[in-house]
Write a structure and sequence with these properties.
Layout lengths: L1 H17 L8 H29 L1 H26 L3 H22 L13 H7 L1 H20 L11 H33 L5 H18 L10 H25 L2 H15 L1 H6 L4 H6 L9 H11 L2 H9 L7 H30 L7
C-alpha cells in the first residue's frame, strides 16, 4: 500500500517532468536538446575546418580539389557503364561531385557567398565583357565552319536531347568548377591573404588561377595526350586568373558561373550541336599554337586589376568614373562591338565563298 501511495504521490511529477510539453526536460525538451547538440556538432566541425584552413590554406585548397577530382573521375566509371553519350556522362558525374562540393562549401561556412550583393548586372557585364566576346567569337567560328563550309554545310544537327544534354553539361561545369575554385578556394585564400592590400589581391588571383590550371592535368586520365593536357592547363591557369579578377570585381559568384559556362559553350559548340566530336576529342586537338591568346588574357587581367579598381576591391565599394570618362568608355565599347560584327560578317562571307580565296 505504501508503495502504491508513493506512486500516486509522485506520478504527476514524473508525468510532467518526462512527457509534458510544458516541461523543458519533456519530449519537446528532448527535441530541443537534440537540436542543440546537432548545432554544437556543426559549429565544432566548422571551427575545426576553419582552424585547418587558417593554418594550412594551400593544403586545404589542394585537399578540396583532390577530393573533388577523385569523386568526379571515379564516379564516371560506373556512369559510363550506363550512359554512353559523352555529355550525359559529364553531367551525371558532375552532379555526383556536386553533392560533395556543396557539403564542403556549406560546412566551411561559405554559404553566404552565394547570397552576397553583387555590383549590378550592367557593371558585371561590362567587367566580364572580354570573356563574353571571346565566347561569342568561338561560337561564331564554330557555326561558320560547320554551317558554311562544303564539308559540313549539309550535316544534320544532333538530336534535340543530345543538344539539351550539352547545354546542361556546360552549365554544370560552370556551376561546379566555379563553386570549387571561386567559391571555396578563393574564399580560403581571401581569408589568409587579405584582399585589402595590393599584395593580397595579386596573391589570391595568381594562386587560385594556378590551382585551377593544375587540376586540368588530370584530363590525362581521360586519354588526352600530355602536350594537349599541358597546353590546356596553362590556358586554364590564365583563364582562372581572369575569372578570379572578374569575381573580385563583381562580387557575384553566380555571374562568374554563367560566364564560365558561356565560355565553354562557345568553345565546344560544334561538338554539342553536331555531335561529331567529344569533349576529350576537342581538348586533345590543342597544340602549342593555342597559347597565342595568353598575352591577351594577361593584359585584360591587369586592366581589370588596375590601381583604381584595386581600390574598389579593398574598400568594398564603387568609385564611379567622371561622366566624360564613362561616355568615352561607352563609345569605345560600341566601336569594339561594331568591329566584331564586321569581322564576323567577313568571316561568314569568306567561309561561304572559299573559291574567292583560291583565285
Amino acid at each position: 500500500m505504501k508503495c502504491l501511495e508513493r506512486i500516486l504521490q509522485y506520478a504527476p511529477v514524473l508525468f510532467y517532468s518526462r512527457i509534458s510539453p510544458f516541461s523543458g526536460t519533456g519530449l519537446n525538451g528532448s527535441l530541443v536538446d537534440v537540436r542543440v547538440k546537432e548545432k554544437r556538432r556543426k559549429d565544432n566541425m566548422q571551427n575545426m575546418l576553419k582552424k585547418f584552413r587558417e593554418k594550412l590554406p594551400i593544403c586545404s585548397c589542394i585537399a578540396v580539389i583532390v577530393s573533388y577530382l577523385l569523386i568526379f573521375h571515379l564516379s564516371a566509371i560506373p556512369v559510363m557503364m550506363v550512359l554512353h553519350q559523352d555529355f550525359a556522362v559529364q553531367l551525371a558525374s558532375m552532379l555526383i561531385a556536386d553533392v560533395f562540393v556543396l557539403a564542403v562549401f556549406f560546412a566551411m561556412g561559405f554559404g553566404d557567398v552565394l547570397a552576397q550583393k553583387s555590383r549590378g548586372i550592367l557593371y558585371s557585364i561590362g567587367t566580364g565583357g572580354y570573356m563574353i566576346m571571346v565566347g561569342a567569337v568561338a561560337a561564331v567560328s564554330n557555326l561558320a565552319m560547320y554551317g558554311l563550309t562544303e564539308d559540313y554545310k549539309f550535316q544534320a544537327l544532333a538530336p534535340a536531347g543530345d543538344i539539351l544534354l550539352f547545354i546542361l553539361a556546360m552549365l554544370g561545369i560552370g556551376f561546379t568548377e566555379e563553386l570549387v575554385f571561386r567559391g571555396i578556394v578563393t574564399s580560403i585564400l581571401k581569408d589568409k591573404f587579405s584582399v585589402h592590400t595590393d599584395k593580397g589581391i595579386f596573391l589570391v588571383i595568381v594562386l587560385q588561377g594556378a590551382l585551377f590550371g593544375a587540376c586540368h592535368m588530370t584530363n590525362i586520365l581521360s586519354g588526352i595526350g600530355l602536350e594537349s593536357a599541358l597546353v590546356q592547363s596553362i590556358m586554364a591557369s590564365f583563364l582562372g586568373m581572369l575569372l578570379g579578377a572578374v569575381y573580385l570585381r563583381t562580387n557575384s559568384l553566380w555571374f562568374v558561373m554563367l560566364l564560365h559556362a558561356w565560355n565553354d559553350f562557345g568553345a565546344l559548340l560544334a561538338a554539342g550541336l553536331y555531335g561529331d566530336n567529344t569533349i576529350t576529342g576537342s581538348i586533345d586537338g590543342y597544340t602549342w599554337r593555342n597559347l597565342a591568346g595568353i598575352p591577351a588574357y594577361l593584359v585584360v587581367v591587369l586592366i581589370l586589376l588596375r590601381s583604381s579598381k584595386r581600390r574598389e576591391i579593398k574598400d568594398g565599394r564603387l568609385y564611379p568614373a567622371p561622366f566624360g570618362i564613362r561616355i568615352a568608355k561607352g563609345i569605345v565599347l560600341t566601336l569594339f562591338c561594331a568591329g566584331f560584327l564586321v569581322l564576323a560578317a567577313v568571316s561568314f562571307f569568306l567561309t561561304a565563298h572559299q573559291d574567292l580565296l583560291n583565285i
